[in-house]
């Protein structure tokens, strides 16, 4: 068995059911299954893709990426979806690291990749463009026309590696997390329970599919349960609102960083969202007003915690407990074990913060071509998240901060998230982040990086005085840097190492 069997079974069981809705078109489960088989024949007969070979894809969200995912599952190959926001030089590094045998490039990125083939002689470049294209590269349509033969390799099972997901790189060089088909399947188990998802659901998928948040939290889960996916190329606020109003999805994901753009739309506040059974969020701290916005409308806002290395669902709220566990990340996923440990590797008492560890069949098998990082991350058979959190007496988990982001000032631990929460309470602060700056006396001191609300004038003194009486004085920021926007990665997480460089001088 492999996960492509999901699609084949739904094609037989629900022949008229739409699998994917995309830009006005519909792909039923039978057609989706046929496209997967055709892509597998193409990969095998035209590009000589064998079990274990890596197939890279660079492009915005498109059904073709999902077709390639399940075609790779049939062949035992490994899909490497690349972040289209990165520079060509970064793509070269990832392609060399994974040793890609084939590289599919969507039209918007063909020009910027035009000279890369000379640097990657062992990799076949394929243009996704329907017409034109580069004469040096075959086009997908040409290869499809010539494809023949069998559409699968025998003996491919769930233990076969399926994905290499390069981490976001918020703290430096990205690493390639290897997820097996079993990891993707167990993530689907966890996610289906998180959402109470069934074949009757209609999923609005708008996060980038090169990240597990876009690919696996709802999208592949929907295809596992036989639901329908409304797929968007990009997050476009107006198109999201129109989709909710007109297509009436039952579930979607909205990142905290999406909300300001959505709420700025003139008809956002009056729109009817009653079709939504729940909205999932995560990736960063969730402002209290955002939680209240959805809960006041009777719609659970579900917080989910995980990482590329966990496929990603590890800890989450559910539809049943979202209102009762407001502000937390919820409880361990059904097929995950969670520990919280101190600096000596001992389990922390209830309420005591420590590093969160995760174990389960959804966890990565390794980092590609990086044994040292693998040993560190999977020490003792547990994935060491690098996140600091705690569990309360009810078994509910809370995230405090990143271990590597913790500031040690004068021997005291300072968690930036705690300070950021205070900053976000200021009525004139749009966004804020806190990082450490080297200090000759204290070792490190916290520095606030602040984006002021439009039309508001903030002074450094305003921010520093805002902390009076709210936190212990040793935690207060010692300086404030004002910026027009915070640097963010593709999942809209603040890139802290860039901020540290900004405040260092």
Write the layout of secondary structure elements.
Elements: H1 4-13, E1 18-22, E2 25-28, H2 29-47, E3 54-58, H3 63-75, E4 78-82, H4 88-98, E5 102-105, E6 124-127, H5 140-146, E7 161-166, E8 176-180, H6 181-195, E9 202-205, H7 212-225, E10 228-231, H8 237-247, E11 251-253, H9 259-263, E12 278-282, H10 288-296, E13 301-306, E14 313-316, E15 331-332, E16 336-341, E17 354-360, E18 366-367, H11 371-377, E19 383-391, E20 397-402, E21 407-409, E22 412-414, H12 416-423, E23 429-439, E24 443-452, H13 460-466, E25 479-482, H14 496-504
Parallel strand pairs: 1-10, 3-4, 3-5, 5-6, 9-10, 9-11, 11-12, 12-13, 24-25
Antiparallel strand pairs: 1-2, 7-8, 8-18, 13-14, 14-15, 16-17, 17-19, 19-20, 21-22, 23-24
Helix pairs in contact: 1-2, 2-3, 6-7
